[in-house]
Amino acid sequence: MDYSGMLKTEELQINIGPQHPSTHGVFRMLVTVDGETVTDLKPIFGYLHRNHEQIAEVNTYLQNMPYTDRLDYFNAMANNHAYALAVEKLAGIEVPERAEYLRVLMVELTRILNHAGALGFLINDMGAWQTQLAFAMREREKILDLFESVSGARLMCNYFRFGGVARDLPPDFMPRLKDLLVAMPAFVDEMERLLRENEILLQRSEGIGILPKDLALAYSVTGPVLRGSGVAYDIRRAEPYSIYDRLDFDIPVGSVGDVYDRILVRIEEIRQSKRIIEQVVAQLPDAQGGHINPKARQNVRPPVGDAYARVESPKGELGFYLVSDGSVKPYRYKVRAPSFINLTPLGDMCRGYKVADMVVIFGSIDIVMGEVDR
Amino acid sequence: MPNLSAEDLRVRLGRDLPGAVQSVSPLKVVPPPAQGHAPAAFITGDTLVETARIVDVALYLRDRLNYAYLSDICVVDYLADEIFEIVYRFYTVEGGSSLALKVRVPRENPVVPSLTPHWPGANFHEREAFDLYGIVFVGHPYLHRIYMWDEFEGFPMRKDFPRQGDKYIGEDE
Fold first, then answer.
1. Cβ-based interface (< 8 Å): residues of A facing B
2. Which of A29, A58, A283, B103 shows its CA 20 to 30 Å from the CA of A189?
């Protein structure tokens, strides 16, 4: 017998956020649900908006360097790198070889700590255990200690300068880095085992939040989300900057484009970053030049023109578009933020899945609200 | 396919989509008066496209030249020339450098055809441009403010937006 006509059903609109533990910041999802199934989802944000781009227009170029740290506060080094590249392109500043190696070293350490944190928080969102997050944070602390020794700050590093980096490595840096690299494989293997052999995680991530290849490209997503969907697009290979054309690494890609593929891509990227760091450590003693170009002026006054530079930040394509009017302050300063654009397909990815899956899908994109809202 | 330069693109567009490319005139960039700089003229090397033809040209880039990845849409306010310039940036998935398309619209009536029906990824870029600069994208499915609250008046990234003493910030702040 068909009971469907006897039960009164209707679609319901609910708000998830702005204060919700799974949103990792102030983010709201306006969800239309039919029973337990999501039929529509609108992301609503701007609670952290401070008009970063306009504040940057009243600062000098160098004053904006510490300010870029605050965009994606998990990956301050990667933000510094993209901004330094844009200004160097605009002003025509050369970077010595040793400084390039130091930059790549810092950025790849950043990628490791970001992916470790992203995986830890994702498992936390699934409600499985705190253990994984504690393991990831333990590894992240070791890298933050290294950042503190080179830059004086753990999170807001402000380490890059136009033409190089702020200071050279302290004497105890290399032994500590080598200890970290020795301990790294055990950590990654342990984490992978905890993820891949966990029944809860497999149940909640396999086949969930599928973003097909063609849709991923049309939605302009980048980073691990795009590669999880099977597009081998990595800016370090597609348009090599810095010294990435001399380094040997693989680009992991997923096959289905679900949450599980994004997890696997992130685990493999940790291993590839470790490979890059090992090559950097081996090649660093032979690199020419100091940690900064001594001729590079820090109060730059670039000629009139525009420049766009981008890097593969751990979350995707991070780009800076600058227009110079010939003065010490940028005329236009635009951030192409990966977290912001990767949120565009959230509605399509969640449609048809359960409310509980929505939290997991959102977590698998890996966003930071400081960068989304700007 | 090897990467195209902006020059090659203009040649191809002139052949396949006649009338779409505009000739480039210099724009003035004026530093704030406190810095005591003379305004400078800025001539772009990128391709300037007729506003009404932007969708045609973008689809030509995607379907014929394989530039399928729309990376960025950015607005620049050239207050001295009364113009908004909108910069679209495209890449190929195979790799290489970008192709930028630029569109110029008058500041009094900034209306541009939307790319969102063809690239869903343009959605948030265009909403951001609408929110902060007031550019109207015709054909956008949901053109609402994205950062500011809905009742907010004015467009905060415009160069003539008051930085002090407006209705949201007191005189002495």
1. 45-46, 49, 51, 53-54, 215, 217-221, 231, 233, 237-239, 304-306, 308, 310, 317, 319, 321, 323-329, 331-332, 334, 336, 340-341, 343-345, 348, 373-374
2. A283
